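ENTRY TYPE: protein
CONTENTS: sequence, structure tokens:
***
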Amino acid sequence: MDEMAFSKLLKNSEARKADAGRFVFRRYLFDSLANTPAGTHAGICGLRGIGKTVLLLQLANAMKDSFYFSSDAEYLEEYDLYDIMRFVASRGWKHLFIDEIHTRSEWKSALKTAYDENLARVFFSGSSALELRKGADLSRRALLYHMKPVSFREHLVIKKGIRDAGRISPQALFEEKTRAVFASSNSEFAGYVAEYHSFGGLAYPSVNPEQFSLMLSNSLEKIIYSDLPRSEVLKHESVESVKKILQWIAISPPAELSYSSLGGKLSVSKPTLMKIVDAICRMGLVMRVLPCGKDLVRKEPKLYLAPPFRTHIARSVLREPDAGALREEFFVSHADKLCYLKGNRGQKTPDFRFEGRTVEVGGAGKNFGQEPEFILKDSEEFTGKSIPLYMAGFLY
């Protein structure tokens, strides 16, 4: 790298860091990244549009001797990634923040060498979780964090300018007194859940619905036709089947997935279908919930789309998304480590087990007929064993 290219790189770094100063709110992952053990690299993977770049820049602004660049910048194409890192580090920068690192084929070797030579500490991001996770052999040198879509809580702050009500713990969610205290000052948030189904999950700037839809379509195209093929997990002909599968998920109510049955409907072989589902789940585009129980022979999952893709994809084929699916998806996207309850044929069971409790997700009129311990209702009711669904949006 020559001085002229470096000068341009430095100017861009300072400009991007200065611009990021206008983003006061920090996403939930900031503290975890900032507290990554000294001497360890840290990576962020996750969907396009969820705020990874802004988070990197916020971290850069919080650390001394920090330098930011995006590895997919056109004017850097002629330079090897390691050479760029070495050149910057030789000028005194001790913390390097590298965006879209997965676009460089040599990214793994560059990070390994930088670590082994104690060149600088590196924080990096990539839209392709598949590509970054291929670097699993970096585990001794780097911690990889999966960044979730923008939560309902974060959406209210980022998009609506509403005060941050703070997180609610899973334990507090099941305590009536805690729910009552939370609801007393935050019940008005329930009215924003429907908006979140259509415009939540992503950190796009506040734009009109048509612009948002266009941005979402462009992001989806890049995931399907750029990120997936680059990962080399899927062949090009398999990539063409991804849209069919996403459309099927978007217009279907939540149900146990039969790979054989769905493969037949979509003219996709079972092995190919399983590979596609695994790939889009690891990309973060689809959420996979497995049945509860270790002894189940068939571990066929339920599939949910990351918000707001169900609404967007369903409407792109002139369909409205299933209301029950949207409610379950809202809960699934905010809850960690849950499984769905699988009963015997004809047996009705609650939807999920979460934090050791059985829960049902439903509309305002949902009753306890399926004998769950708690019901998350699309309402403001918080007494007894009823939990307002919107409160799950504050789990992170």
Remarks:
- The radius of gyration is 22 Å.
- The chain has two domains: 3-147, 153-394.
- The CA atoms of residues 45 and 356 lie 29 Å apart.
- The mean pLDDT is 92.
